Amino acid sequence: MPLINIIPGEKIPVAPMNVRLPAWRIPGWLLVFWWLARGLFRLTVLAVRYWWLTAPAVFALWLRAEYGGLVLVGVVLAVVAGCAGWWRWHPSSWLRFGWYPLVSRVRALVVYRRRWASVMATCGLATAFAGDRYVPQLLKVRCDRYGDELTVRMLPGQIPDDWGQAAERLAYAFRLQQGQARSTGRPDRVVVRFMRRDPLAGVVAPLPVAEVPDLGGLPLGVREDGQAYRLRLAGSHVLIAGATNSGKGSVLWSLIRSLAGGIRSGLVELWAFDPKGGMELAAGVPLFARFVYDDPDGMAGVLEEAVKRMRLRAARLRGVTRQHVPTVEEPLIVLVVDELAALTAYITDRKVRDRIKESLGLLLSQGRAVGVHVVAALQDPRKDVLPFRDLFPTRIGLRLTEAEQVDMVLGDGARERGALCDRISESSPGIGFVVLDGVREPVRVRFSYLTDDDIRQLGRDFRRLCDIDARDEQEVTR
Ligand SMILES: Nc1ncnc2c1ncn2[C@@H]1O[C@H](COP(=O)(O)OP(=O)(O)OP(=O)(O)O)[C@@H](O)[C@H]1O
């Protein structure tokens, strides 16, 4: 036995009173028992949480023990045949209540929960405080045909925009390509959607035409969630921005088609401006009340005529109503401009350019209430049209060449909230982002595509009845 024990440690300063705490000696069997109990509890929790795995496994083991392997194989085959039958008999209910819930559970376990904590840390969404690590909680995973939707409880101090900024990084971390975050009704939650397959990959065929167009929701295309995208024209002007070949023409033609019922009956008058030589809009001439192209002076004149109509109408409606309701006598006037910059920036004659700018400014600032609307397409949303951009309440961003252009078109912070217009592939014309009323996060949309034949057919089917009447009258007098 050594004479002196040397115990390393800090020197305890002398105090007026020294207290010796009792030392508890815990028997080894109690420790082992505690660890076993804790392990068993965790196993039980896991078995209950993943009941959809454990219950069939236990049942299969019991079957095999009780009736043998053959019976087990028979039961498995019967279940598979039952599922296949359900799928054949009623595919939508099978997918909704059978297949996707199963896929959701498997993907939640295999893809998301397994790497959740590490991905949260590497994407900057986990945090540490007072020596403890805090990770957002993954509450639910819901899969559908096109993607996975994760409901997450955010950490205190986080907002949905933080997740919007991290969404793309998260998507790549989980080996997917696109992600978007959106807020929910609950302030502590956010929903992140990752895309596995693009629901907008296919071309959208021309949509049915209503006899009387619903100006509060004109159907122009399909949204990512499969619903129709409806544009509110009443009380608005529409700006469509997109690089060359991004599909601006398809947005214009989808809109013209959605108004076609009203064009035929005379409720809607389309005035078309095609400063790029008439190539884009010429096929729809029977639908237009005015069609001007190429001639800057002519275009300035027609715009001034529109201003005159607007002023006369405003004078008539003053004190009668605050919002114009289209009738055949007082139709909705929609000015469709194929390339706004060609009107406002590229015209060399300064006088004509100033006339155009003045008229456009007046129409954009005063036309909405009296039923005169401007729908304009634009390639470059930068300085050239700066004075007008903010006068368009409804804006559509198709493929854009630079990330900074996105906020110029869709408003500040739109790109951070998920409008990745600069990432839209050149092979997907007609896809764009829009901001819906009351929804913070921009929504991805594919506009319907009208071929030249469709446009000619539209012109034949919905040509203006008043033009036909006028032509008949001429023939009778001749
Ligand atoms: N919604 C759509 N769906 C599928 N394909 C489309 C769609 N829109 C356009 N395209 C295809 O992309 C091509 C270019 O479209 P469009 O002419 O409308 O582009 P744009 O943006 O108007 O181009 P530009 O600025 O040169 O006039 C079309 O010829 C067509 O093949």
UniProtKB/TrEMBL annotation:
Instruction: Cite the SUPFAM superfamilies for this sequence.
Output: P-loop containing nucleoside triphosphate hydrolases
The record's Pfam families line, in alphabetical order, gives:
FtsK_SpoIIIE
Q: Name one GO molecular function term.
A: ATP binding
- What positions does the domain FtsK occupy? 226-407
Membrane-spanning residues where? 43-63, 70-89
Instruction: Work out whether the entry's keyword set contains ATP-binding.
Output: yes
Binding of ATP occurs at G242, A243, T244, N245, S246, G247, K248, G249
InterPro entries attached here? Answer: AAA+_ATPase, FtsK/SpoIIIE/SftA, FtsK_dom, P-loop_NTPase
Arranged from A to Z, the UniProt key words for this protein are: ATP-binding, Membrane, Nucleotide-binding, Transmembrane, Transmembrane helix
Q: What is this protein called?
A: DNA segregation ATPase FtsK/SpoIIIE, S-DNA-T family
